[in-house]
């Protein structure tokens, strides 16, 4: 019996074969009607000779000794399969558009999303095994998206229902994008200005850690929708008592309560990361610094802060990714962002509109997480050296 050298590739290939039974696309006569599911072999212009040999070749690589050349070939094979699935999706949408009416919609099905996710997991696993250098890993994973973005730019997917929805709401989408970025930036900056000094204060006065963290934990346990609602009445009262607050945008609904709630949620992970990062400084290092005659401020900036920076950046990464996701819910109180598209799609039972809001949020969260991981990995490598 042949020996398997890469069980992850073997498992992912088996899941890909099983996912072929799921709908690859969904075809509907209009945007409000449930679509007819079509498997990959049932769509017009379906795969001819590339799919099964492609999966078979990928499966064979799991039984080859895993050296850099094999891993590079696995990465390339997974990326080619990823691109072929995208091309097949665009081709199927074009063929169905020619056969149907102008208002018909073709949407990616569950089988397509699962196949794409499995291909990306395969490429990620091959990249992780291929190199330990953070920058090279990041570049290898980023280049996977170059050709798909080019295909998107030249209109290869214009017949998909998601792109038709985007074409109808281009200005709304752009406004939602900038408002979502404003929510993220407007949360991170005040949270850093409050959380970092609060963490330093707790570090210097250990007796305050219990009350401070208890209060922040209580805030963290309040559901986001409930916290947004709790802020409506007091902020509305303040804007009535002092009209100038309303003139600068402080009211019961809108951006102000959303930013306040998101900043409150961000304080616990930020404060904890500051305290944990400073507490991890080895005692021997601190004693050596004092023995060299370094002052307290020099010890903090030249010893403690550099060693605590990776932990603090992990806290900022957590807050940034959390804010990208929670900013979607802020649309319930009129803060805008991609959540406005999501809830509008839910109210009108338009799945494509929901996806138009959800997919950018996921992409933004993944991008933020990847950038922070790259920075943290490089910083840790520098501090270890």
Write a structural description:
The protein is mainly alpha-helical and 385 residues long. Strands 2-1-3 form a three-stranded antiparallel sheet. α8 packs antiparallel against α14 (296-326), α8 (170-204) crosses α15 and α15 packs antiparallel against α16. 73% of the residues lie in helices and 3% in strands.
Short description:
The protein is built from 16 helices and three strands. By secondary structure, it is mainly α.
Query: First CA to last CA: what distance?
Result: 46 Å
Which blocks of ≥5 consecutive residues have pLDDT under 50?
A: none
What's the number of helices? 16
Helix content: over 70%
Residue share in β-strands: under 5%
Q: Would you count the extended β strands for me?
A: 3
Mean pLDDT: 84
The major pleated sheet works out as: 3 strands, antiparallel
- Strand order of the main beta sheet, please? 2-1-3
Radius of gyration equals: 25 Å
Any key phrases for this structure?
385 residues, mainly alpha, 3% strand, flat
Q: How are the secondary structure elements laid out?
A:
Layout: H1 7-19, E1 25-28, E2 36-38, H2 51-61, H3 68-99, E3 105-108, H4 110-130, H5 134-142, H6 146-153, H7 161-168, H8 170-204, H9 209-221, H10 224-241, H11 243-247, H12 255-279, H13 283-291, H14 296-326, H15 338-347, H16 351-384
Antiparallel strand pairs: 1-2, 1-3
Helix pairs in contact: 1-2, 1-4, 2-3, 3-4, 7-16, 8-12, 8-14, 8-15, 9-12, 10-12, 12-14, 13-14, 14-16, 15-16
């Amino acid at each position: 019996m042949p020996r398997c050298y890469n069980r992850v590739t073997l498992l992912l290939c088996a899941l890909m074969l099983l996912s072929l039974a799921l709908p690859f696309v969904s075809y509907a006569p209009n945007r409000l009607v449930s679509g007819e599911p079509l498997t990959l072999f049932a769509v017009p212009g379906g795969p001819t000779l590339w799919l099964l040999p492609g999966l078979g070749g990928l499966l064979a690589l799991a039984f080859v000794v895993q050296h850099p050349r094999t891993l590079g070939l696995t990465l390339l094979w997974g990326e080619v399969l990823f691109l072929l699935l995208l091309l097949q999706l665009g081709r199927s949408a074009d063929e169905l558009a020619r056969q149907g009416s102008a208002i018909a919609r073709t949407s990616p099905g569950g089988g397509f999303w699962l196949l794409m996710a499995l291909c990306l997991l395969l490429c990620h696993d091959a990249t992780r095994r291929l190199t330990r250098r953070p920058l090279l890993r990041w570049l290898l994973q980023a280049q996977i998206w170059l050709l798909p973005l080019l295909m998107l730019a030249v209109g290869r997917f214009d017949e998909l229902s998601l792109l038709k929805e985007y074409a109808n709401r281009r200005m709304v989408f752009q406004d939602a994008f900038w408002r979502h970025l404003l929510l993220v930036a407007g949360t991170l900056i005040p949270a850093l200005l409050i959380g970092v000094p609060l963490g330093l204060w707790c570090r210097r006065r250990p007796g305050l850690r219990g009350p401070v963290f208890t209060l922040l934990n209580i805030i963290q346990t309040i559901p986001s929708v409930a916290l947004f609602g709790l802020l409506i009445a007091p902020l509305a009262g303040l804007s009535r008592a002092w009209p100038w607050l309303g003139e600068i945008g402080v009211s019961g609904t809108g951006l102000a309560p959303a930013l306040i709630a998101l900043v409150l949620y961000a304080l616990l992970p930020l404060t904890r990361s500051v305290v944990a990062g400073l507490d991890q400084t080895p005692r021997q290092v601190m004693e050596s610094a004092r023995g060299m005659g370094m002052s307290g401020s020099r010890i903090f900036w030249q010893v403690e802060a550099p060693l605590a920076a990776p932990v603090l950046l992990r806290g900022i990464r957590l807050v940034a990714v959390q804010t990208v996701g929670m900013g979607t819910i802020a649309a319930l109180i009129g803060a805008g962002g991609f959540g406005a598209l999501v809830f509008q799609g839910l109210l009108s039972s338009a799945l494509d509109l929901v996806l138009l809001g959800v997919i950018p949020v996921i992409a933004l969260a993944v991008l933020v997480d990847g950038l922070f991981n790259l920075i943290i990995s490089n910083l840790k490598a520098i501090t270890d050296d």
